[in-house]
Input
Amino acid sequence: MSQAKASLEHLYKVFTKPEGEDSRLAQIETQLSANLADFLSGHIVSEEIPLEKIEQDFSRAQVPEQPQFVSDHAQHLLDKLVSKSVNTYSPRFIGHMTSALPYFHLSLAKLLVGLNQNLVKIETSKAFTPLERQVLGMMHRQVFANDEAFYQQHLHSATSSLGTFCSGGTLANLNALWVARNRALPPLSGFRGISEDGLFSAMRYHDINQLAVISSARGHYSLAKAMDLLGLGKSQLHKLDCPKQTLDPQEVLHRGQKILEEGGRVMAIVGIAGTTETGHIDPLDELADVASQLNCHFHVDAAWGGATLFSTRHGSLLSGIEKADSVTLDAHKQMYVPMGAGMVLFKDPLAGNAVRHHAQYILRQGSKDLGSTSVEGSRNGMAMMLYASLHILGRQGYELLIDQSLAKAHKFAQLINEHEDFELVTEPVLCLLTYRLCPGHLREKSKKISDTHNQHLDELNRMVQKQQREAGHSFVSRTRLSNETYQQPITVFRVVLANPLTTEQDLQAILKEQAELAARQPLWTQL
Amino acid sequence: MSQAKASLEHLYKVFTKPEGEDSRLAQIETQLSANLADFLSGHIVSEEIPLEKIEQDFSRAQVPEQPQFVSDHAQHLLDKLVSKSVNTYSPRFIGHMTSALPYFHLSLAKLLVGLNQNLVKIETSKAFTPLERQVLGMMHRQVFANDEAFYQQHLHSATSSLGTFCSGGTLANLNALWVARNRALPPLSGFRGISEDGLFSAMRYHDINQLAVISSARGHYSLAKAMDLLGLGKSQLHKLDCPKQTLDPQEVLHRGQKILEEGGRVMAIVGIAGTTETGHIDPLDELADVASQLNCHFHVDAAWGGATLFSTRHGSLLSGIEKADSVTLDAHKQMYVPMGAGMVLFKDPLAGNAVRHHAQYILRQGSKDLGSTSVEGSRNGMAMMLYASLHILGRQGYELLIDQSLAKAHKFAQLINEHEDFELVTEPVLCLLTYRLCPGHLREKSKKISDTHNQHLDELNRMVQKQQREAGHSFVSRTRLSNETYQQPITVFRVVLANPLTTEQDLQAILKEQAELAARQPLWTQL
Output
């Protein structure tokens, strides 16, 4: 490969001159724009390549000394990176929450980098700041449905914050629990507040030995991470068992009362609107009432399920969310925005003040800079992507997307139920469901399959999932799931039916492939 | 404006059919690619528009009901957003750390969104995971310069982590202090470690009343934010005064000894390699020794200055950084990568285990998934942008960029020193400097300007900075700065000379405009 020379000319060129139309990078861009599906299926090698083999191409820990021509590097990226990436656009990649995106995001991504704004501060973002505030307002209204006067008062107020954009649900949950923690331990005489004096003083002044969060065992792992980060400790996260996949409000209440009796305090209850594994929704309305009884913060992690609010038909699945003190949303999930568009919303526009901070050269007091109540500092203008989607798809467009995803999940559930070799493990509440290979004769014999049989089924399902992934035609994920029927968790396939390009034929093909893979396993015939 | 209908056809089109070549969005893309400077200067209104006026265009808190055609929305973005954004590419926008980027990032941004990988997990990122690990390894080697065997052992090991990518320096600093906190309070008999049992138990079991961080008053505001988040409290961040802009290692040692004597513990010392306000570098080598004496973590915030290591000539400004336990770098600063490319590096590849977490459906134990030691969860493949830059620019390219930035800063300092109306306040150490308008006769009269005169100068400089910003031809930022000469902080202009497109003519034009603006102020003539 030829090498460019590190001259000021070469440098000046990469900063000022676009690649010619015949350059490799320009060709790649043209192909990307012309037909993304073809580009991806044409360049990504479908069969799984062992990770160890891929690592060999990325094993040099020395920064290259000499510059490289852009075209040479573009070809290198195609050969070594693109070819071995994951085709998330594919209608048969239904194992995770990443799906095909609308085309306009390709062009907008270019615009975003061309503008390269920094949202931490108005001086480096100008109109992007009001835009982000508007988008937060739109999502806030979608969730909390306050009246027009409320939004006119708070949307652009320097002392209000309807929420914060961030890279994803993990940071959104952290931001919410951070606010909840700081509000739970307000200043007292001699104590300036936790933000200033820290948790150790806070717990002594408030005379409590525990500051607990109650959630479901199905809660996202970011909750435990947040407990660690915030200094509360994972042991203060009370994850209640959920054989029915959702929290029982009475159990939450009892656990909360017990914590209070033991000298602790409940800092927050976290309800989930769309669990990562099965898409279940906690009884938000009743949990809000329990939070009110326990006088604690009520957070709803709607990273996955939040977009359901766009659907007139299914939005009521989330009823009670409007009573939450804070809500996590991920626009890069069911809102079809590129990776990196998380949000936390606060019911009370003043809640963010519990974590507000300032600095002299940046984030001056009274300014409308967005960085003063967020976990992150410098951030890009990702809000533009959601803004564009909200306008180009509109509420009705999102409604159609949500409705057809749910319809597809029900269709897939029906296909599974009708198939001799499969067992539906969790019904779709949103567009997620879990199922497993399980021969019909086993299910007929008794309502309850023996532990030994389940262990064999676990092994079988694990192997089939792996082999299907390796073959590269389609991808479903797997997890281990507790349920009402069995003592032990069982291994299941997990699918997310959010890709609007996925057809019934795709779903049938996936089942067919799994059944064929199973038939080839000695285990299958022994069952 | 015409409205699209929310039909499945419309939806299917936005997911599958690119815009035609004559569409507004395609036209925008063509213009962007052909000449970014022209696109930006042609579309961005240079004069400052009052924020309140911009907000009027972003004041609707209702999600639009109907879909919109892509072309209509693209024109709307141009008119309302792009026109009122900040021209960070401009060679005369030298007030903040955002600068022009190499052209190839425009195309790569498109590729990144087309691929839409999620780095939290190998299943949704494949080759992007080894790539990110390699990039972390390259930066690790640039900082810590371990031998080849070290990198071959740790680069792709499931139990090692050379660092973490994140959205920016704020998260990187948080991640570093999180690791430092958890390592400072290891498990004891009856205590399972802070991660599990929390800070309250940790401090009781370890029998300490304070867990302190010592840094300079010039430290980034994210340090205080991290103290709040981690539950330590901002009051445990000891920000030592720095009239010379850098930490005095002896003062750090004394403060540390005092904390120990009072029953506290020093958790970390934070050194800065390139302060946000003036670009100064703390004496890293001596601070490392103090950290060793106090037996605490040594973190270096090199978000700005880290890239200096690429320069043979100037790299030694950071000597001692290789003794740090952790280092923050921002590739979106002096490495010319789009916004959102922060990193934290750990000297000890096992340090990250202090915050390692797992989940069943994701981040299985023993996997190489990148999400298990990071603050963030889902993340995009931004590492590709840095990977491309490291290859296309090479170390030599970065060296040239760094060297010419510093040369430019020295040139600008000279222009300021030669100009009758200006006073250089801080010399450039890296490519940042501060100065102010200050008539020559005031400086001649005495070494020390009176407080009353300084107050007038503060007001004058504030007004000139504002008027220059509003005129829109160029932008310098301002801050208030403590220094050795005066009791009170003074208001200064702050410039960052990282844009390779900035010429000496640009710098002269900026000074000329400021001098002319000053001459028009009644205050100027009264001084």
User: Anything to note?
Assistant: Chain A touches chain B through 183 residues (CB under 8 Å). Chain A has a mean pLDDT of 94.
